[in-house]
Design goal:
single chain, 281 residues, alpha+beta, D-amino Acid Aminotransferase, Chain A, domain 1, D-amino Acid Aminotransferase, Chain A, domain 2, 2 domains, nine-stranded mixed beta sheet, six-stranded antiparallel beta sheet, 8 helices, 15 strands, 28% helix, binds pyridoxal-5'-phosphate
């Protein structure tokens, strides 16, 4: 497998990052995950735009993001699978450990690779997934997609131990998002998700889903909801790069029912956009 590392393509066995890399020492790095549907790097421009915002927010030196596209196309040439996941990580570079930013001229570390992923199964789509709620104990800048994901890792592991697929974060009594996805419900026939604030990651799949919902003339609201409102929702689903749109059917042990009509319509619209044939039975 080839990896793109600071402008070069190297075999993964030769891809080495020094111990003084700030991504390793401080989590001083941003990342993106972009899904590959066949040959299509889905929503590339939106992902790069979010990466640019993150780099600016963290006051990174300029990085040539346009060069990444060419490199991604080169990596894609190795592809021998249906769906893949492209990972980009940019750290503030390598310098002996010190909290202060490294001196001007320190080059960011840029790394990128593609790995195959299993498409979400028909069974999972037909049955939906179980989720649990957990306190949102993350920092106040989760809108920046940094690699500092420890609270997300712990939350997801907790969900897994309880036989659930995802953990839904709750802050100040309302649902923010999941450990690696955004969360939607349908209640009173209205599609609802939390508005963009510093407490959620502005998911690209969330954005695409909202656009599709608008095109379908679905009633919708950007308004937070409580766990109680989620327990009594008609429908719920997660959105994320690797999962697309994934129905949620059980929340903290309360069964909402089979994936409903709004979720199914959005799924079909999403697959049309990603040129995937329908996986609903
Ligand atoms: C915390 C969090 N929220 C939401 C998302 C969904 O974002 P996207 O649709 O851009 O993958 C992710 C993706 O990994 C995430 O980590």
């Amino acid at each position: 497998m080839r990896v793109y590392l600071n402008g070069e393509f190297v075999d993964i066995s030769q891809a080495r990052i020094p111990i003084d890399d700030r991504g390793f020492l401080f989590g001083d790095a941003v990342y993106e995950v972009i899904h590959l549907y066949g040959d299509l790097l889905f929503a590339w421009d939106l992902h790069i735009e979010r990466l640019r915002f993150g780099l600016q927010a963290l006051e990174f030196p300029p990085v040539d993001l346009d060069a990444l596209r060419q490199a991604a196309d080169e990596l894609k040439r190795d592809r021998n699978f249906e769906e893949g996941s492209l990972y980009i990580q940019i750290s503030r570079g390598v310098h002996p450990r010190s909290h202060l930013f490294p001196p001007e001229g320190t080059a960011p570390t840029v790394v990128m690779w593609i790995r195959p992923v299993e498409p979400v199964s028909r069974e999972l789509l037909a049955e939906g997934v179980r989720v649990i709620t957990v306190p949102d104990d993350r920092w106040a800048k989760v809108w920046i997609k940094t690699v500092g994901l420890l609270p997300n890792v712990l939350a997801k592991q907790k969900a897994h131990r309880q036989g659930a697929y995802e953990a839904i974060f709750v802050r100040d009594g309302v649902v923010t998002e999941a450990s690696s996805a955004n969360v939607f419900i349908v209640r009173g026939g209205v599609l609802r998700t939390a508005p963009e604030t510093n407490y959620i990651l502005p998911g690209i799949t969330r954005e695409v889903t909202l656009r599709l919902a608008r095109a379908l003339n679905l009633p919708m609201e950007l308004r937070p909801f409580t766990p109680d409102e989620m327990y009594t929702a008609e429908e719920a689903f997660l959105t994320g790069t690797n999962i697309g749109i994934l129905p949620v059917t059980t929340v903290d042990g309360r069964y909402l029912g089979k994936p409903g009509p709004v979720t199914r319509r959005l799924l079909e619209a999403f697959w049309a956009e990603t040129k995937v044939s329908s996986r609903l039975g």
